[in-house]
Each structure stands twice: as C-alpha cells, then as structure tokens.
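Checklist before submission:
- one chain only
- standard amino acids only
- sequence pasted in full

Submission:
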Amino acid sequence: MSSLASLTEAQYGLVTTRQAELSGAHRRDLSRLVQAGVLEHMAHGVYRVAGAPRPCLTELRAAWLQLAPELETDQREVTHGVVSHSSAALMYEVGLLDPLRWEFIIPPPRRFRTRRQDVTIHRARLTAGDVKWVDGLLVTTPLRTVIDLASLRFDGGHLGLVVADMLERDLAHPGDLSVALAPYAAAYGLPGTTGREFLEHLTDRQGQRTSHAAHR
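Returned file contents:
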C-alpha cells in the first residue's frame, strides 16, 4: 500500500490493476489486500481503498479510469476519454437527472469497447476548449454538454432544466447558449426559431413548471 499511497490519494482513493502493476505491485498483492479488507473491488480492474472518504459519483470515477487503465489521472488527455452528456450534467449538478448509464466521449481515431451495460461510449471530435477538469475528472464544458444533449434530442423538459440551472449558477453565458442551441430548434418542433427564442422557450417551460408545482 505504501507504493500506491500517492496514487490513490490523487485519485480519490481509487486505483486500477494496471496502475498498481506499473507501481510495482502484483495482481496477487491486490487480491490479498482485498481479502484483508484493505481494498474494495469497485469495477473490473478498479479498486478503492477501504475506509477512504467516498467522493461523489465514485462509480462514475471508476468507469472513467477504465477508459485508460494504465494512465494516472494527470497523464490523461482528451483522446483518452471525457465524461459527457448526462454524466457531465451530474458533475455540474444541473438538472434533475438519474441516468441509467455513465456516458463518455472518446474522439476518433481511438476505438474503445466495453462490455459494461451501464456505460455508453460516444464518438465525437473534441477540442481543448470543449473540456475542463472538474473534481479530478476530464469533463465536457457546460456549453459543450448542452450541445451534446441537444444533438441527441434529449427530452426538452430535462434539457430546459439543465440550461436553467446553468444560467442560474453562471456556468454558461446566455449568448453562447443561444448560438449553440440555434441549430437544434427545428428538431424540437420549433422551425424558424432563433437560438435566443429557443433558449427562452426552454427556460420559460421550467418557470411554468415551477409555478404550477408551487400552486399544487
């Protein structure tokens, strides 16, 4: 454990089998530590230090580590996988989402397959400006997150709540959101609508829902 201490501390108590091996540990060492109650098995090839503070969305962190199990957190770049879509919204604590799957973007040309039924891999191009570090994870920016959700025709009510929360918390500028949302207005049944009008439509719906709920 002494050889893994700095690594697990930097990764919120998590470590992959490959990272441990590169640090000088062996698979049998990890098995012994699990049997001794020192480590907990989180996911295939991912362990957590028992008793360590359990950070928010630990399962999401474990799934992200699986995307490039040989790399430590500070060695990862956009090409190795980024938290995205509904999972990114969870990281920003916007909307009222309870997704059944963890979502990531892995830009081409890299290919990655997973057997996990609770993980969805999207293939899309990303620039350095599309991502940021959030609590030790590479995550799509709030603006890019909205674009990704809208491109999948994410439920309008939920998208509106995500956008409204971002505006309320100053996570995104309304002008930038208007420009980003403009190409998707027609897909949401509002052809000929400007991005600003679409944004107002989404946020007005949330205001109406809140008002109705308050009068019930």
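Reviewer check: The chain is about 40% helix and 15% strand.
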